[in-house]
Design goal:
Number of domains: 2
Radius of gyration: 25 Å
Largest sheet: 7 strands, mixed
Shape: elongated
Helix content: 25-40%
Strand content: 15-25%
CATH class of the largest domain: Alpha Beta
CATH architecture of the largest domain: 3-Layer(aba) Sandwich
Strand order of the largest sheet: 3-2-1-4-5-9-8
Order of helices and strands: HEHEHEEHEEEHEEEHHEEHEHHHHEEH
Length: 383
């Protein structure tokens, strides 16, 4: 694997496209910095710090000489990005024409995504470039080129197409706005600009299926006095279901209300809350309020029994999920186990304010530490 770009730093996309208008006063890191030109340009444009990570010692030597001649002070590290320790977070993370040379590019991409506070910029070879592109699939695909000799394998390890990159960012992650793609005929590559979502206050209405989440969420959205009584912001900027985060408006959002069914991992490959892309969204908010619904047995089973599935879901589910849950809700152990998982997970969200909402037709608000007692009441009060 080598962190040397296949074309010069002066070619490719314009610096305005790479940097946008968000570099002054910000920190910047270039993964595979080659001769350091992007780091120098970032400092010229007002970045407070610029770091380059480069595998080859000779490239770093050239980069440091350039910096000395320019009178600038970037930081350069001789390191393998896939194996080096923590690098910290940066406002802008760039990785131009390096991802296809990595042996585990998806893991590296996720690491870069977690490092970026505001913006992640990638450049990748465009497989639709050239005459043979008409025969390449337009559906999401990651090619694995086969090198003639083993020592050439790192030249091109994996080649994701545009649709695959869109799927990774827009579906496998929930922390970015829908990505922007720019193609270059000159270089035969495409540039990806991924902008982190900015949420000032996120209110999550959570709980098991048919516990009254939607009704409570709608009350929050429509009743200003109700919101204020719960210590929430005066206005609601946007709202979404967990599966529809990508449809939220762009730009900074003051207050978002999110509907989250905590059975999303149940009986699905997700398995845990930590693996749910929607949960990554929680960490974006400066302030996080969680309201977990706890509904008496008779009420939650009645609401589940009254559910009518849409025709599309009926065709997809041989045994409707609601019928399975209806049977499982009969025993207190099933819900108790999932509440235990949920509250344990939420306890790891250090900036969260968590409230239990007992819903028997009226709302009773309790501390999250009281959930076990509420659960016992919900089952003791029903036959």
């Amino acid at each position: 694997m080598r962190f040397a770009r296949p074309h010069s730093d002066d070619g490719g996309f314009s610096r305005d496209v790479v940097f946008g208008d968000r570099i002054a006063g910000r920190t910047f890191i270039d993964i595979g910095s080659f001769h350091g030109d992007l780091c120098l340009e970032a400092l010229r444009r007002g970045a407070t710090r610029a770091v380059g990570v480069e595998l080859l010692h000779e490239n770093v030597s050239i980069a440091r000489n350039k910096a000395s001649q320019a009178g600038l002070s970037p930081e350069y590290m001789i390191a393998d990005f896939e194996r080096c320790g923590e690098l910290g977070s940066f406002d802008v993370v760039a990785c131009l024409n390096v991802l296809p040379q990595l042996f585990d590019p998806i893991h590296a991409l996720r690491r870069m995504a977690s490092m970026a506070n505001e913006r992640l910029v990638l450049e990748l070879p465009d497989q639709r470039h050239g005459w043979f592109s008409r025969f390449r699939p337009r559906r999401p695909a990651i090619e694995v080129p086969l090198a003639e000799r083993m020592h050439e394998v790192a030249a091109r390890t994996f080649l994701p197409n545009v649709a695959a990159i869109e799927g990774i960012f827009n579906q496998h992650m929930a922390t970015f706005e829908p990505i922007q793609i720019t193609r270059s005929k000159e270089t035969g590559s495409f540039l990806v600009v991924a902008t982190k979502r900015r949420i000032k206050h996120l209110t999550v209405v959570a709980g098991p299926t048919k516990s009254g989440k939607s009704t409570f969420k709608n009350r929050l959205i429509g009743d200003r006095d109700f919101r204020l009584s719960l210590g929430l912001p005066e206005a609601v900027t946007a709202q979404a279901e967990a599966n529809e985060i990508k449809r939220l408006p762009l730009g900074s959002l003051d207050h978002v209300v999110l509907h989250y069914d905590f059975f999303r991992p149940y009986d699905r490959p997700l398995g845990t809350y930590e693996r749910d892309p929607a949960v990554e969204f929680f960490g974006l908010a400066e302030h996080l309020s969680i309201f977990t619904m706890m509904t008496p047995k008779a009420r939650i089973r009645a609401q589940l029994a009254a559910t009518k599935l849409k025709k599309k879901r009926k065709r997809r589910e041989t045994k409707p999920r609601r019928k399975t849950l209806y049977m499982l809700y009969d025993s207190p152990e099933f819900l108790a186990g999932w509440y235990e998982k949920w509250f344990s997970f939420c306890a790891t969200l250090h900036h969260a304010r968590h409230t239990v909402v007992r819903n028997d037709g009226n709302y009773e608000f309790l501390n999250d530490g009281e959930w076990r007692g509420v659960h016992l009441r919900n089952y003791a009060s029903d036959p």
